[in-house]
Amino acid sequence: MKLFRRALIITILLSIILSGINILINHDFKDKITKTIKVDNIKAKEIKPNSTKPIIEIKTKSNYYCLIDENGNIVSSKNEYTKIYPASTTKLVTAMVAYDNLNENDYIKITNVIKNMPPESSTSGLIKNDKLKVKDLTYALMLPSGNDAAIVIAIETAKKVTKNDNISYEEGIKIFAKLMNKKVKQIGAKNTNFVNPHGYYSSNHYSTAYDMALIAKEILKYPKIQEIVSKKEYYIKQTKNNHEYLFKTHNELIMDKNYYYKYANGIKTGYTDEGKHTLIASAKKNNKYLFVSIFKLDKREERAIVAKKLFEYGFNK
Predict the structure, then answer these.
(1) By residue range, what is the domain housing residue 198?
(2) Bridge partner residues of 234 (DSSP)
(3) Does 27 map to a domain?
(4) Residue 74 within any structural domain of the chain
(5) Please, are residues 273 and 202 in contact by the beta-carbon 8 Å criterion?
(6) At what angle do helices 91-101 and 209-217 cross, to 10 degrees?
(7) Domain tally for the chain?
(8) Which H or E run contains 154?
(9) Is 36 contained in some domain?
(10) pLDDT in tens, 249-259
(11) Cβ distance 107 to 294 under 8 Å?
(12) Which DSSP letter does residue 247 get?
């Protein structure tokens, strides 16, 4: 009888001990799972595009801007992924596609295609039947923001890539737009779509401040275009048809004494009724590059004021 009682007691005690061990193991396992889930959730929430650092928003008159460094990291931004209409800042891509496909010293004849400029276009004053180099036309494109130059460049590039000199204006613009969209996707501008070479308003011609900042940064791969956009003016004394041209920049940061910024070195301004005043610009200080895109400002001079403020923040950060 005594042996039976001892065996029963030992069995009960072993059962209690084993139950306790099982509870502890399960609790520890569940605790590990819970901790892992919490850590994973924190990591997921902390991931930010292009940077692990919080993005600082600078108070300016622009609600749509993006400031990046030469590595593509966002330094400051506001509504950088919101859809905007880029206006003539588009022309930087036009210049890049031209230099990808044409020789800057090749001559292009100015034809009737310039009659296809949209109403109230900015123009560089190109004269029909004149002949200018690709380089000269790029100055006409980027300084006075010539829509006529944009069209001439686009059609000539389309002829070159298709090997068809009889291509229609409409087809030429479509082909060039495809080249532009291919280019911006290569750059990483995933939320951009272009339908023309000059930026004239279309509901299907759009971008974002972030994408346009990336596009501005791409100019580092095009030193010849970089030199063009840094100039205040460009004078052609005599073309093959004995015409002269003087192209002046619209970029207040490098030409207007009231808004001049000594570290600025280009790139492109723009305006449409829908997109308002726009700017993509670059600046260099102590071998450090910054690129900014600014959109939807009501007054022309505000784009330079905002750009200077953002550049100063970036360089002093």
Answers:
(1) 64-316
(2) 247
(3) no
(4) yes
(5) no
(6) 40
(7) 1
(8) helix 147-162
(9) no
(10) 999 999 988 99
(11) no
(12) E
